[in-house]
Amino acid sequence: MKKRTLAAMLAASMIAGMMSGCGSSSDSSAASSAAEATSSAEEAATEETEEAPAEDTASGAKQIMVNVWDSKQQPGIQQICDEWTATSGIPVKVEVVDWDNYWTLLEAGATGGEMPDVFWMHSQYSEKYMDQGILLDLTDYIAKDDAIDLSNYYEEVTGLYAMDGKQYAVPKDYDTIALWYNKDMFDEAGIAYPDETWTWEKLIEVAQQLTKEDGSQYGFVGNTDANQEGYYNAIYSYGGYVINDAKDKSGYDDPATLEAMEMYTGLIKAMPPQSTMAESGNLSLFMSNTAAMGMFGSWYAASFKQMAEEGNTQWACAVLPYHDANGNGSCDEGERVSIFNGLGWSAPANVENPDDVYALISYLGSKEGQTRQAELGVTMSAYKGTSDAWVASIKEVDLTPYLDEAMGDAKLVPMPCSRNSAWAEDAKQSLVAAWQDTSKMTEVCKQIAADMNASLAE
């Protein structure tokens, strides 16, 4: 590949309009990845990076460059790619770019620079990238490929990467959310562990019981960034919504949404200050035994596995609470909700070696590749029936609640998004005021709805 100057790419991205990470399953994991990145965006903007040689001396095949944003998934993805290289003879290099710089560089590449050959696509960006013709159309490739049958994936995930009858990504994974808790803190307080009978009200009650007045322990952790891992689940559990199906109207002022967010204020009162959560991050606070509970996506499993291997076995997880709308003491259909998302494997429309690139994408999305992803504990796989191997791969913690939710214990609701989901980031920032003063929750939500509707109208 040619030498490229990241400073020029960043300048191009500023002209095109900088894209930032939206509230998503990947946003939170990217925060931890960013700390592990090998260089900052500022350094990258002033240094030239010599990329790996385009030709592999052994096979003569052009090396395929793959970009991802989660450092914890990189080793497993690289291993899968290496296994494919062993049979295809085509070398693959998997590189990590933290979430914010990932989209900045991808945007820059789409406006005149160079893009990686294969990359993760996210639901909150896919519609824009498909509409602008940036992604390689995989439709004809898939039609001729015996290894890829889109009916083997969740329709909601494949639909995220389809437009006008064309498919622009092969599903990589899907995720659900679970309630994690600190067993030691529950044992000390003599409180039974969370289970499938817990309502949102029960969660609030216990969270407040486990909050100590001296600030040494909080019942729950969840900042405004944790929309997929927090209040989105409550909103849809209560029958509300964030954005309508037509994607032209906000649901933040819907009565059911307001009811859910007012309920959520009881949970906020059992949390550390918003500033502390924003600075330290939910996972860090939870794993440092500062909070008794937190909601975390399935992509965090590797972090819990690592901590368990180091002797920290005080954590476990359960399915999310439900909203007992009928007051009958049992969970009716649609009252337990898990917001889910799914990434896709994509390539740029102008990639130099589309046949080789699709061959790699095909393997990554095939039953074999997806099973390997699960077996290596990378994350839950998008191919139906393969995620049991993911649960079995991480023996240090019981991850069955994630799979239980996917298999019917919860209604799975796709991550709310639209063609331009900048409103999601705006909403997170606006909600800071309600986290700091819970009496403002309804007022803030109504203002979010007004601002969001104006954004969607544009």
What does this structure look like?
By secondary structure, the protein is of the alpha/beta class. The protein has helices at residues 6-16, 25-35, 41-44, 74-88, 99-110, 123-131, 139-143, 155-159, 183-189, 200-209, 227-237, 255-268, 274-280, 282-287, 301-309, 354-365, 367-375, 388-393, 400-409, 422-436, 441-457, and strands at 4-5, 48-49, 64-68, 92-96, 118-121, 162-163, 166-167, 170-171, 177-182, 293-297, 315-318, 337-340, 344-346, 411-414. Strand 3, helix 4 (74-88) and strand 4 form a beta-alpha-beta unit. Helix 1 (6-16) packs across helix 5 (99-110), helix 10 packs parallel to helix 12 and helix 11 (227-237) packs across helix 12. The protein is globular, with a radius of gyration of 22 Å. The chain starts with a strand and ends with a helix.
Label the structural class. Answer: alpha/beta
In terms of per-residue confidence, which ranges show pLDDT below 50 for 5 or more consecutive residues? 1-57
- Care to count the β-strands? 14
> Tell me, what's the shape?
globular
Helical segment tally?
21
Quote the beta fraction.
Answer: 5-15%
How many angstroms does the end-to-end distance come to? 39 Å
| Helix fraction by DSSP (H/I, runs of at least 4) | 40-55%
Strand order, biggest sheet?
Answer: 4-3-5-13-8
Largest sheet: 5 strands, mixed
Gyration radius, rounded: 22 Å
Oligomer type: single chain
Mean pLDDT: 88
Characteristic key phrases:
five-stranded mixed beta sheet, 458 residues, single chain
